[in-house]
Design goal:
By secondary structure, the chain is mostly helical. The chain has one domain. 69% of the residues lie in helices and 0% in strands. It contains ten helices and no strands. The protein has helices at 2-12, 19-39, 44-70, 75-78, 92-104, 126-152, 160-179, 189-195, 201-221, 223-241. The longest helix is centred in the first third of the chain and has 27 residues, at 44-70.
Length: 245
């Protein structure tokens, strides 16, 4: 009896493995806001953009796991990644630091979360279903942008509500467009991998190791490159929302 009680006490007093992660998230977010306030570069529209990008990134990732689960792979579900709890998905750099730095720098923000685990081998039709899993994220972002555009036509007064819709729509257009680029590990690479001849796979796998730092470098150092890609898509969203921009 005493052994069972001792064991129960050990289980109950075991430290929460995510406590340190939650603390780090709060500290990093607080440091970013404090720096921006100190520099006087944080404006209300920046808060709307930053507030829009975190849930949009999370919904993007959750959609991958949901579609994978529909097609037979419950890896994300078993890993606890089908939750909307942001702590389960936040990547300190990709979800917080990178978007915040872009907002502070006056650049339209993009970012990423921890990738949802997907075991392609568990999908019922790995070749076809992996494509649907990969495209689920961008489709989710464009769907959110579409809803935001539709809501623009129902709001007949200005103010913060329109600013929120503008931020949500813009952020999701950027995320959807960015992730459709056929560069690993972005979601658009799922289509590239489906079309790639087997003879090119060794070189592709070598490129894949360094592709993400390259993409991040381009976003920060040469933002005009990505801007040239997303601006036409963003203009179409402006027209859909009835904005004369």
């Amino acid at each position: 009896m005493s052994d069972a009680a001792d064991q129960q006490h050990v289980v109950e007093s075991a430290p929460d493995p995510r406590r340190g992660e939650r603390r780090a998230v709060v500290l990093v977010l607080g440091a970013i806001v404090a720096y921006a306030l100190f520099k006087g570069v944080l404006h209300s529209e920046d808060l709307y953009f930053f507030g829009a990008i975190v849930p949009s990134i999370i919904l993007h990732e959750v959609s991958h796991g949901v579609v994978a689960n529909i097609f037979g792979d419950d890896t994300a579900k078993r890993a606890g990644r089908l939750t909307l709890n942001p702590i389960a998905h936040i990547d300190l750099f990709g979800t917080l630091l990178m978007p915040a730095m872009l907002v502070i720098a006056g650049v339209r923000p993009i970012g990423f979360a921890k990738p949802v685990p997907v075991n392609v081998g568990r999908l019922r039709n790995p070749r076809n279903h992996s494509l649907f899993v990969g495209l689920a994220g961008p489709v989710t972002n464009f769907a959110i942008a579409g809803v935001a555009a539709a809501l623009f036509h129902t709001v007949h007064h200005g103010g913060w509500w329109l600013e929120v819709l503008f931020a949500v729509g813009t952020v999701n257009v950027l995320l959807g467009t960015f992730n459709l680029l056929p560069i690993p590990p972005l979601d658009g690479s799922a289509l590239l991998e489906r079309l790639l001849p087997q003879s090119m796979w060794p070189g592709y796998l070598k490129f894949r190791r360094y592709s993400m730092p390259l993409v991040i470098g381009v976003v920060f150092l040469v933002p005009q490159v990505f801007q040239a890609i997303y601006e036409p898509v963003l203009r179409q969203w402006f027209r859909l929302a009835g904005l004369g921009i």
